[in-house]
């Protein structure tokens, strides 16, 4: 599988994952544990790589990050709240 780089990063959500994780006062290990409960097998090293933009994030992981971090998927992807 070819992984594309956009603006020097392999994902769009890393910075917002880190921001929200810190707002919730979660460590990377805590966040990994919560994702594992949702059956996303990920460790704290992978969380760090995601936050730095060094790891690709598949769509099913984006959905689970949104669920665990209690944010909207569109906010994770764009930084903007969805309009309804």
Report on the structure:
By secondary structure, the protein is mainly α. It has five helices and no strands. Helix 1 (14-23) crosses helix 3 (44-51) and helix 2 packs across helix 3 (44-51). The chain is globular and about 30 Å long.
The helix/strand order is HHHHH
The coarse silhouette is: globular
Oligomeric organization of the protein chains: single chain
Structural class: mainly alpha
C-alpha Rg (nearest Å): 12 Å
Secondary structure: elements and pairs:
Layout (H helix, E strand, L loop, with lengths): L13 H10 L4 H10 L6 H8 L7 H11 L3 H6 L6
Helix pairs in contact: 1-3, 2-3
Descriptive labels:
about 80 residues, mainly alpha, 5 helices, globular
Short recap of the structure:
The protein is an all-alpha fold and 84 residues long.
């Amino acid at each position: 599988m070819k992984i594309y780089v956009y603006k020097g990063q392999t994902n769009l959500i890393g910075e917002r994952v880190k921001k929200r994780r810190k707002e919730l006062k979660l460590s990377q290990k805590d966040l990994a544990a919560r994702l594992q409960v949702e059956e996303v097998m990920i460790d704290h090293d992978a969380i760090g790589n995601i936050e730095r933009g060094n790891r690709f994030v598949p769509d099913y992981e984006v959905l689970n990050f949104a669920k665990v971090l209690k944010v909207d998927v569109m906010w994770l992807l764009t930084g903007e709240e969805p309009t309804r």
